[in-house]
Specification:
two-stranded antiparallel ribbon, five-stranded parallel sheet, alpha/beta
Amino acid sequence: MRFDVITLFPELFAPFLTSGVTRRAYESGLVEVRLWNPRDFAEGRYRRVDDRPFGGGPGMVMLAEPLTLCLESLRADRLACAAPDAPTVLFSPVGDVLTHARVERWSTGSSGAVLICGRYEGLDQRFIDTHVDLQISLGDFVLSGGEIAAMALLDAVARLQPGVLNDEGSHQMDSFNPALDGLLDCPHYTRPESWRGQPAPPVLMSGNHAHIERWRREQRLALTQRQRPELVRAARRAGHLSKGDEAFLADLPKNPDPDA
């Protein structure tokens, strides 16, 4: 799948695309990333890509014309390369929060996307109204630009591609995954068995896989109920909670620490 990224700072992506386990997705072509700088399509000696906002106020606003020329050029390139049509995505605080479900949809049979990384006070609204298909947010906070958000999406998609992770099934045990009924993942422990006076839970060394799996399930339930109770409610509505799960959750107020 192909992602075209419109950014004023393409140099930020160089180490990201060549580091860590997800580089396998980019190097193999499973996820193709092409970078486009709207400054290359700006006019004038200084190739200006922003201007002061109408009505006054702080900051600058990205100009619609360089962005449009950049978008038209990359779309022509996609057409010449026989790449399928893809949605144009803007990272913005007004967008829907990026979720695991959306990442999964992109990672399987997707045509990719055009990712627009805004800067300054944002983009001229006329460009957004004309060209943007979807707006996405990472959460209720503001970044200095959309590049970090674009990297987050690319990383989340790349790690789900076949052969990228060392263990093919490891991502299926991630938080929010349907394999975990959308719950948060449980805590994990490794050697030594006792670290600075803190022992690992004995059940994990018991060798009894049924007990281990039940412990992990209860840890996921307890952690999710404490940190993200809406995910527990969603799992309940979907019919993913067993009678044993419900009994454990009912006892949580009496036993708030599942390690006790």
